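Blinded run. Sample ID left blank on purpose so nobody reads anything into the name before looking at the predicted structure. Input follows.
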Amino acid sequence: MAEPNLVILMRHRAVLFGLVGLLMLVAAFRAALVPAAFIAGFVSVASFLWLAWSVGGYNPQIARVVVVDLVALACLVIGAVAHAYLKPAV
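Blinded prediction complete.
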């Protein structure tokens, strides 16, 4: 069985990830929320990557999360650039 403190932290990360995902889903239908959704996504992903990099010495499971978050960061950058350049003129 996993160490209880790690389980608590990982479940908390899952809840926060769900909240960011929900904000992004709602922002897909409410244009006014798009900037907040991008900011929340960037803060979430970048903060985890910074923490992993600054602490170092993480296990293979965390390394997998780092790779997934790098992919998520790339998707966020592509999405933000596309949103900035392809949004319809008002």
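Unblinding after everyone has recorded impressions. The helical segments are 4-27, 34-55, 60-86.
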